[in-house]
Amino acid sequence: MVHEYVLTGGTEMEFYEREQERQRQTAAQRVAERVPERREHETVLASPGGVAVADTAERVAKRVDRLSRFYGDGSLLEPGAAEPAARLEKIINTVDYVGVRYLDAGVAAARTVGRVNIRDEGGRTVGYGTGSMVSPSLFLTNHHVLPDAGTAGTSMVEFNYQDGVDGRPLAVAAYALAPDRFFLADEGLDFALVAVDAPAAELAALGHNRLIEAEGKAIIGEFVTIVQHPRGDRKQVALRENKIVDIPERFLHYAADTEPGSSGSPVFNDQWEVVALHHASVPVPEPEETGEFVNEGIRISRICAMVRETSVPEAQRALVDELFAPPEAESAASLQSSAVGPPPVSAPVSRPAERAMAAVPLAQTREGMVTIPLEVTVRLADALPSEAARETEAIDPDYSDRDGYDPAFLARPLPMPVPSPDLAAVASAELRYHHFSVVMHRQRALALFTACNIDGRSSRRPRRDSDRWFFDPRLPAGEQTGEDVYRANDLDRGHLVRRLDPAWGTEVMALAANDDTFHFTNSTPQHHAFNAGQTLWLGLEDYVLNNADNQDLAVSVFTGPVLAEDDDVYRGVRLPRQFWKIVAMVGASGELSVTGYLLSQAVLIADLAGKETFSYGAYKTYQVPVRRIGELTGLAVDPHVQADPLERLEAVPAPREVVRAEDLIL
Are 523 and 538 in contact, with CB atoms under 8 Å apart? Predict the structure, then answer.
């Protein structure tokens, strides 16, 4: 719940101190309750390879995937090479070397951090805090620093309150806050988000650190860095033994050198992604190996969720959208930090060439080395990849900006299919990508179905120069069918959502959507002989999209495998023998038309398939009642059935083989 307090007269200092102490006490209670867990983590971390097993398997897998994408080492994602725990050891260990890029990224991230001057109505300073820019307009700090709009309205923030490289103080940039433009605070998560009253160009020069909603940014045993104004002093960086020792549901616990006055400091991982908002430092009940104090920060993913769920006035909605907007261009050297503008030093800084959501991975550059107390090893290679090899090598790791399938995309709304109660027990949550969504069968490790919107008016054709596939970090790797199944055999990775179907809109968006189709969640093993009998199967969407009766050159497509109990098992995966599509459009009459198709063969449709009659090369495309697809798959498709033209026929039609476009009944 969002809380707002009104402070009047001379009570501001008392309230600030009382709120700070209350947050410290609640943090102390959580720290005391988690003593057994921390000690267990300390024991595991002290053993060889402990960092790979101290946290949950799911969190470790997500961290492996995120680090692999950051360092450009796709082999870390191959499940056949090793388990996630072993793969993690490739990139996190005890070597204290990292590319000098780390320092450049750190300067950019630190530039966004400012000192909050908490002032009363008379302009008297009653306390200090820390905060940072998290969007082009918004500043993030603690609720106990800025508990209400009134306090924010009388307070101010100072940037560059620090010494320059020559040891002299920099020129401070001081700005008032603008809570009338935007203010959101929550006592439970101890955060406050407020607009800064400053020219856009000046804030752009400071830059901002994007808040990433996705998990996988940190695990137990990793180190964090805290940029802060301790006791309201000049900006400092805590780089010494800032180890994460526990991760309760909404918080991070870590041992670090934070001091009073550091409330609201951003907590960064080694890739300079904000993982938490620091808010309290408390003594441990009994001495521990991590030290006498445990520090607590609020997990950024939880703050993002709260902001997403909170209803704000329409005038402020644009600032929330801006907070979660994807970057226009993002490099592997700065996956998270969007800070821009010149650093506060006199020496010029060169920047790497950028490409939207892609750049040369750090692992494929030559960099100097510098000793830093970190647990990261950066591997170096000789050659830079050609542009042709870049197309599917840089899927944006921040999944929070994917909108997924849009039920209101067509002039007549159409929802996604709904799994039956039995299927719901094994179905994943909706996995949203750019312009399409996937729901997985977690036991079969294959898609139950995909749902995609296709806009023929703004479609584009990004090149397909490579076939590199990725696991989705939101789902355990064991619930996805990866590269092992496809090695040294006649199986192809069959796109369910075709590569070009979601590739529409701006060039940046089309490329991002194209890349998203190369997730293993969108792949189903298909025998290469399927191509011999697919006839119109691969072109169904195009035929419907370009039909003269299609009102808006827009189509929504649902597709998936028929997951039968008697499917043949190969390398632990049951291979589907039939595939289905449901294609929807709005005709010139304004009516919705939804048609269903099977990629199958006569013996399967007649339920006569046996080892002697089934052939992977005998496939044909059939138009079938949408109702039949629901029966085969266990998916509820009632709204789709109602718009099926075959339902208007007097007799239930037999499956119709489709050879030419003229055979389609739309």
Answer: no
Any idea what the Cα angle at residue 448 is, between residues 443 and 454, rounded to 5°?
Answer: 150
The pLDDT of residue 74 is 46
Q: Which of 66, 105, 98 is nearest to 331 (CA)?
A: 105
Q: Which residue has the tokens 């720290």?
A: 31
At 208 the pLDDT is: 95
Find, among 38, 41, 43, 45, the residue nearest to 94 by Cα: 45
Q: Report helix, strand or coil for 196.
A: strand
Using the 8-state DSSP alphabet, how is residue 657 labeled? E
Instruction: Answer for the pair 226, 266: CB distance below 8 angstroms, yes or no.
Output: yes
E strand or H helix that includes residue 512: helix 507-516
Closest to 253 in 3D by CA, of 240, 244, 264, 262: 244
Burial class (CB in 10 A: 0-12, 13-18, 19+), 322: middle
**Buried b or exposed e, range 62-92, using 16+ CB within 10 angstroms:** bbbbbbbbbbbbbebbbbeeeebbebbebbb
Copy the structure tokens of residue 13.
């200092």
DSSP β-ladder status, 369-371 and 418-419: unpaired
Kindly report the number of other CB atoms within 10 A of residue 542's CB atom: 17
Structure tokens belonging to residue 261: 């006055």
Helix, strand, coil percentages (3-state) for the chain, rounded to 5, are: 25, 25, 45
Spacing of C-alpha 155 from chain mean position: 34
Structure tokens at 49: 């390879």
What is the structure's pLDDT at 293? 72
Structure tokens of 628?
Answer: 């039949």
Alpha helices in 217-341 (DSSP H): 300-309, 314-323
Please report how the helices 35-45 and 12-33 are oriented relative to each other, as an axis angle in degrees rounded to 10: 60
**Distance from C-alpha of 440 to C-alpha of 482, rounded to nearest angstrom:** 14
Q: Distance (Å, rounded) from C-alpha 279 to C-alpha 274?
A: 14
Residue with tokens 């950066």: 378
Cα separation, 241 vs 257, whole angstroms: 8
- In terms of Cα–Cα distance, which of 464, 333, 329, 482 is closest to 389? 464
Buried b (16+ CB within 10 A) or exposed e, 284-316: beeebebbebbbbbbbbbbbbebbeeeeeeeee
Where do the H-state alpha helices sit in 49-168?
57-71, 84-88, 101-111, 149-154
Nearest CA to 68 out of 76, 60, 58 is that of 76
Q: Nearest CA to 176 among 114, 127, 253? A: 114
Query: Which residues, given as ranges, of the chain have pLDDT below 70?
Result: 1-17, 20, 68-99, 240-241, 256-261, 284-292, 327-394, 464-467, 490, 527-552, 601-619, 650-666
Residue appearing with tokens 């005391």: 32
Predicted local confidence at residue 262, as pLDDT: 81
Provide the phi-psi class of 180: left if phi over 0, else alpha when psi is between -120 and 50, else beta: alpha
Closest CA to 360 of 335, 396, 381, 332: 332
DSSP per residue over 83-101, as a string? -HHHHHTTT-SS-BEEETH
DSSP letter, residue 532 = G
Measured distance CA(645)–CA(658) in Å, rounded: 16
CB 639 within 8 A of CB 451: no
Give the closest residue to 128 by CA, choosing from 95, 161, 97: 161
What is the pLDDT, as a whole number, of residue 216?
79
For the chain, helix (H) and strand (E) counts, in that order, are 15, 30
Report how far Cα 349 is from the mean position of its chain's Cα atoms.
Answer: 30
pLDDT of residue 656: 64
SS3 237: strand
